[in-house]
């Protein structure tokens, strides 16, 4: 057998570069099953997905993925290392034996991680820089260039998770070229920062959804964030996940003079914190996310199925009795406790879109029978 292949995605939104990536995996590696773990309605850099998770999962299956699993909020809205740990943990539990990802440099990632671990890098925070810059400098001292290479950084994080957790997973790569499609460029066009169309960058299914929906962004929710900060005491804000080092005071102070989210980010920005770090913290504050809610997901993980085809359905039927984590294909009262954080954060998406994200929603099934 060629093997059970998995990869990590946001599909924010699903574009022709993703289609090309999936096609290359199938051409180069011929997987028996191809599984994607995909971020839900919130993404890693502290933003809202431009399309809801169900639509993105459906399009992914239409274009060649056999099974899509949701990456819960607790993993999806985290820095690279924690994002990678959560994603690989779920892919390992569903039984992949090959991980594949795109990278700017085609290197042996497992060998690279082994060398890093053996070198015992003394990572001491330089507080004149933010964490990401400090990390890049530490790796550069070991001859590892990560600057401007986000896919390589994520790949390194994936490989580190595999090595450190002793997962029996092989790593395969797809080399990314400079002219590959860019999700960030598509989102800029969608946010009307320029007047260029996205129709030539995305499949028809994505284009139809984007043209038919009101796009969700921080512009939509800034007033909600402003209200939460203004009506919370500093003691209450201190309880927000990752609210550290007196940031609650800065939030309280700078929200008073910030008319937009971009202005708020500019005002709270400092050398110690990246823009993405502060956007994630803003998401946690907007949604009132606490440490114990994140920890609950880490301690009690689950596998939420969003979409599959006949190949994915057959695979699920073969493995579901032997899974270590609960398998969820439909959310009812029994899943309230297990998925409490996801239900909470998705309620905001439901309020603004009018579209149910959890209760009663079943996975998209392409040519398959219901599980």
Automatic annotation (TrEMBL):
HAMAP family cross-referenced by the UniProt entry: TmcAL
Subcellular location per the Swiss-Prot or TrEMBL entry: Cytoplasm
Pfam family of the protein (one): HIGH_NTase1
Broadest EC class assigned to this enzyme: ligase
Entries under InterPro entries matching the protein: Rossmann-like_a/b/a_fold, tRNA(Met)_cyd_acetate_ligase
Keywords for the protein's UniProt record, in alphabetical order: ATP-binding, Cytoplasm, Ligase, Nucleotide-binding, RNA-binding, tRNA processing, tRNA-binding
Residues bound to ATP: 8-21, 102, 151, 176
Main location group: cytoplasm
EC number(s) stated in the UniProt entry for this protein: 6.3.4.-
Protein function: Catalyzes the formation of N(4)-acetylcytidine (ac(4)C) at the wobble position of elongator tRNA(Met), using acetate and ATP as substrates. First activates an acetate ion to form acetyladenylate (Ac-AMP) and then transfers the acetyl group to tRNA to form ac(4)C34.
Name of the coding gene: tmcAL
Similarity annotation: Belongs to the TmcAL family.
Superkingdom to which the source organism belongs: Bacteria
Name the record gives this protein: tRNA(Met) cytidine acetate ligase
Reactions catalysed: cytidine(34) in elongator tRNA(Met) + acetate + ATP = N(4)-acetylcytidine(34) in elongator tRNA(Met) + AMP + diphosphate
